[in-house]
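User: Structure with IPE, tokens only please.
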Amino acid sequence: VPNISPQELIAQDLQTVEAYIRSTGEGAGQPLAGMIQSVFQAGGKRIRPTITLLMGHLLHAPMEPLIQLAAAIELTHTATLIHDDLLDNAEMRRGQSALHQRHSHAIAVLTGDYLFAQAAVLEAAHKNPRTMERFSGMLSTIVRGEMEQLVHRGTLPTMAEYEQRIFAKTAAMFETACACSALLADASAETLAAAEQYGRQAGMAFQIVDDVLDFFGETGGSGKPDQRDLFQGVFTLPVLLYQQKNPEDTDLISIRAGQSDEATLRRLSHSIQIGGFLQDALAKAEEYSDSAAQSLADFPINTYRSALEQLTREIVARKV
Ligand code: IPE
Ligand code: IPE
Ligand code: MG
Ligand code: MG
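Assistant:
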């Protein structure tokens, strides 16, 4: 069928994923059940389960474990968002006020913990030790990435540190989703490596685009305040690219000296925007997304492969 979107291709499976997510909430008892329901009802793009399902179909993974995997990935992602919003002191998430704003911090911590635990339960349901090992390794990686970002707030990372960080906090989950899909399908070592590479590169592109969209914020339709990262001392790719071209910039020198008052950050943000560094960062995201698509070169040509290729283009074109 021509022009069918990646999401439409696996719409049926995504509905089953939603049913697993709902049943996680329903089984939790109050007040967890209500929180979990409100968090998932607010929507979200479901890009991680979409990629998981498409990769699984492409490699002929068995359906029930695949769907449980996709649901486990979305549960994990949502848990990280609940905790991330608490760490970032964010007001809004998925168009509604963040969980820690509506309830207490303690409740946000526990709801996130519960979702992590339920994700592990669901992922373990198919009793595959190789996917369990990958999945639990991923959980550690994400926590390390968030911790690294947290403790280095206010300092400029090197390019290598930035790449490490976005791998850990975001790309590792995309990579693991694809790796586990391949493991469920009992794929060869080469196929597993190609699937992982697709996930990792797509995830890197996804986080870079998120970091660029952060500069546009509310105005760009993300429902988040403008330049939240910058004003919270989280310096991302546009800043690093600006620094490479303008190493002597006085605002950057102040930031490196630990002085980043509001006026300095405002000037820096302006320089980055007018200098075209957001476009440069997007070009870097495009390199990652192109190489994600390239990783599929040896896979069979069919609608699932086309959908995964299409997704890499959507990742860089997205506005929210
Ligand atoms: C937000 O993820 C956090 C990042 C890793 C950038 P998404 O942009 O996928 O959030 P939802 O799931 O659609 O709300
Ligand atoms: C969140 O990254 C990534 C996680 C692993 C939770 P961001 O902090 O950039 O996500 P947003 O911008 O708050 O959605
Ligand atoms: Mg955040
Ligand atoms: Mg962000």
